[in-house]
Amino acid sequence: MISDKPQPQVAPFPTKLVGGAVLSTLAVFVWLSWFVYDAYQFIQDTNNRIVGLERARGDIVHLDEVLTMSASMAAATGEIAWIDRYRSFEPKLDSVIKRAIEISRQPDFADAIRETGAANIELVKMENQAFTLIRERRLEDARAILFGEPYLVQKQVYAGGMEKLMRVLRAEREATVESQRTATIGSILAVVAVAAVIIVTWLIVLGRVREWRAAMSKTLADLVRAEEALRKSHDDLERRVMDRTRELQDEIAERKQAEEELAAKEAQLRVALDNMPGGMLLRDRDLNHVLFNSQYSELYELPDGLLEVGGSIRNELRYQADRGDFGPGDKDELIEEVVATYQRGEVVGYERAIAGSGRTLQLRSVPTPEGGYVTFATDITDRKRAEDELQAVYGIIKDQKERMEDELNIGRGIQMSMIPLIFPPFPDYDEFSIFAALEPAREVGGDFYDFFLIDEGRLCFCVGDVSGKGVPSALFMAVTKTLIKSRAIDDSSTASILTHVNAELSADIKTSMFVTVFLGILNFRSGEFVYTNAGHNPPYLKRKGGSLQRLDARHGPMIGVVPGMVYREETDTMTPGDILFMYTDGVTEERNADRELFSEKRLVSVLASTTVDSVENAVRDTVAAVKAFQGDSDQEDDITVLAVQFQGRSKHDRVAVFHIMARNDLREIAKVNQEFQKFAEEHGIPVDVGRRISILLDDLLSNVISYAFPDDEAHEIEIRIELATNRLTVTISDDGIPFNPLGAGTPDTSLPLDKRALGGLGIHLIRNLVDDMSYHRRVERNVLTLVIHIE
Amino acid sequence: MILTVGDAGAVKIVRIEGELNTQTSRDAEAQLTQLIDAGARKVVVNFERLAYISSSGLSILLAAARQLQVSGGELRVCSLSDLVQEVFDISGFDSIVPVSKNEAEALDGF
User: Residue A746 has what pLDDT?
Assistant: First the structure.
């Protein structure tokens, strides 16, 4: 990681200081150089001057000598050569003197020089005079000049001048040396001072530079550290880059492999696609084609090239619409309808007939996760044809079945309409009670039972089983039943009745049907009963004490077999509480899943139970037992049971009767009640019972009056209340429309206040206030009977 | 049928004597409606002297109870005879209209 430390502060180089030092040093040096140079120059200069002057002096002296010499010689010898020599050296002396004057600065020197110069001139003059004399060969005169006093004086002056010159020169030289020395000392001092200053300056500078260097070192160290850190992170980074690169390379390799695998899979997919039995078309979320196989195009009978990757769904839809696949109508609308189904994002399945081709396709489109669709097309033309044929056949079968069922229904209709189904059938007769049940098998079996009152004291009852099944049996059963009834009205002998019925039924030899019958007539005043068993299952008589007796006497064969057969009969007596139990072989021959028979054994055990103490229990328990035994297996035959119990009471029990007629007007109810209250008081009916009756009358009468007479005409309602020793029987009858007030359902008394409907409450109340309740429709009259038991 | 109205604080005590059947219920209904329209919110119907009640009687009682409930009030009954209690039980009215043994119990907490 690159160091987060702040950048090392770069100590500023004491540039100003150093610069200043350098500059000042330079300046000083420059100055010193100049100074020294100047001093040097000065020394040089003065030296040169002195040297020059010395030389000049020397030269002067020499030259003077020479000249003097020459002059003297010339004078002495009189040789002109000496004058020539003198002449050659004379300019030299002049120039030297001139030169010396130039060099010397001292005015004294110049004066001295001039003095000498002046002397010199005199000398020269004299010399020249001498020379001329010489030339004139006046040597004596010449010598007189040259060795004369003026000449010697001049010579002295000259020498004096020369002496002064010397002195001046010397003084100058000394002065010069002095000044030179000063200059030198000055220089040295200057140098020293400067050196000192420079040294100090430079020490300071050096100090600062050292500081700076130290700082820089530190900075450098920091930098080095930072650099180190940088390098480390750089290395680190590099390493990671390398790792990453390696990873990426691996990834690339993997991906490449995956790509290859994918490509291989794609190839496989392509093979699968191109060889699958049906067509496949994959669309993207814009419903453009992504992938498809050639079968799709073929099945749809689309021209080559119509389907292309990236093409729009509307291309093929347009083609189909033009071809007429979508039927009549605006093509654009039809196309958009199809498109809309594909935009719902639901699985879509439908059939499409290709117009003009006779080919039918089954399409199934499934939405894909990203909003597209994949459609599978299968040619179902053959299947459709087969389906249509099947449909036709099925139609035929259905018709047949319905016809068959109609037959069955007719049969059932006949059967059920012939037998009394309302219980208790004679609630106002308490001398006996009767109950029955018929559970028909799937196919009408021909069982029946019947009972009816012959007169005020006798009840006729029968149970029978017609051979065979179906409508013919049902019809035969109806005929048998009717014959029995019509004969029994006048005939009180069961033998006689059956003999005659047999005669009638056997007369028609065409029908090879026959029927087993058990026929009985009970005198419910005495308890005596007469019975004939014509080939039927022997009934059971359960005595009040609980003993079970099988009445197994047979009095002749099945009815309809032997024409002219004369049947027998026998009599027995029922005591109050005895129950006569009749049944058909649908009971005993019922099979269970294990193909066992219910048999008389099981029937006996049901009947023997102490719970079988009433006709209802006898019938219900038996039917329940048979059904339980049957379990899941089919019921093959009708199950028919009939039970008659002799109660022994008679109408002599009746103590008193209250009878009143009321008009269909709600206001009549109060009147009826009032009258009844009087009756109740007269006959000591308990107050509570009387009130109960009042509630009953109030509710029932208001119901009847409200609902039984929609014609708004005046009607009469008959109210009859029979008081017996231990019960009251209330009978309300009217001639209104068939109206069973008991038909109303039970209100839901658990509902809260607001939800409770007000209707149906009355009947529910009545039902729970009485002990027994029944409704009959008898000869155009509604008859409602209620029984209340009293202590 | 004789219907009398008494007061017990904010509660109206309605005593019904006689029978509540198809005929008399109409009259009772009118009187109860009048009472409720006049502002009665808490009503106790005392059945001590009621001989019996038929479905008609039950329905006007139900109507009165509903009318009171809608306006935030309540109907209670008390002092039912055995037969009337039996009728209430059969019809399930005992779970709609609170039944008390006597007036004191009915007024308790009303």
Answer: 55
Determine contact: A769 vs chain B, CB below 8 A. yes
CATH number of the CATH domain containing A349: 3.30.450.20
Cβ partners under 8 Å of residue A449, min gap 6: A419, A436, A438, A461, A462, A463, A464, A582, A640, A642
- If one counts the domains in chain A, the total is 4
Q: Please answer yes or no on whether B21 and A670 come within 8 Å at the CB atom.
A: yes
**How many residue pairs from chains A and B have C-beta atoms closer than 8 A?**
79
- Compare CB distances from A754 to B66, B87, B92 and report the shortest one's residue: B66
- Tens of pLDDT, residue by residue over A143-157, are 787 777 887 887 787
Q: Are residues A422 and A283 in the same domain?
A: no
User: Within this chain, do residues A433 and A540 fall inside the same structural domain, yes or no?
Assistant: yes
My answer on whether A352 and A451 are in the same domain is no
**Mean pLDDT (whole number) for A604-633:** 90
Paired with A582 in beta bridges are: A642
Query: pLDDT for A163-188, tens place per residue?
Result: 777 777 777 777 777 877 887 788 78
Choose among A540, A536, A519: nearest CA to A451. A519
Range in A594-598, A742-746, B17-21 the model is least confident about: A742-746
Residue A713 and residue A622 in one domain: no
Strand partners, A53: none
Task: Write down the ipTM of this complex.
Answer: 0.90
Residue range of the domain that includes A317:
279-379
Cis, peptide link before residue A425, omega less than 30° from 0: no
Same domain (yes/no): A20, A139: yes
* Whether residue A602 sits in one domain with residue A697: no
Q: Is B7 at the interface with chain A, CB within 8 A?
A: no
B51 CB within 8 Å of a chain A CB: yes
Q: Are strands B99-100 and B74-78 parallel, antiparallel or unpaired?
A: parallel
Assess contact for A462 and A451: CB atoms under 8 A. Answer: yes
- Mean pLDDT of the region A279-290: 91
pLDDT value at position B98? 92
Question: pTM score > 0.80 for this model?
Answer: no
Q: How far apart are CA B66 and CA B58, in angstroms?
A: 12
> What whole-number distance in Å separates Cα of residue A509 and Cα of residue A633?
37
Q: Which of A695, A753, A761 sits opposite B69 (nearest CB)?
A: A753
Q: Are residues A642 and A663 in the same domain?
A: no
Of the pLDDT bands very low, low, confident and very high (cuts 50, 70, 90), residue A753 is very low
Structural domain of residue B38, as residue ranges? Answer: 2-107
- Residue A517's contacts (CB-CB under 8 Å, 6 or more residues apart) are A462, A463, A464, A480, A484, A498, A501, A532, A533, A534, A535, A536, A558, A559
- Burial environment of residue A349 by CB neighbours within 10 A (0 to 12, 13 to 18, 19 or more): exposed
CA distance A127 to A63: 14
Q: How far is CA A419 from CA A76, A332, A488, A623, in A?
A: 221, 68, 16, 17
A229 lies in some domain: no
Q: What is the pLDDT of residues A398-420, one digit of tens each?
A: 888 888 877 777 777 778 888 88
Provide the token pair at A601. Answer: 């054994």
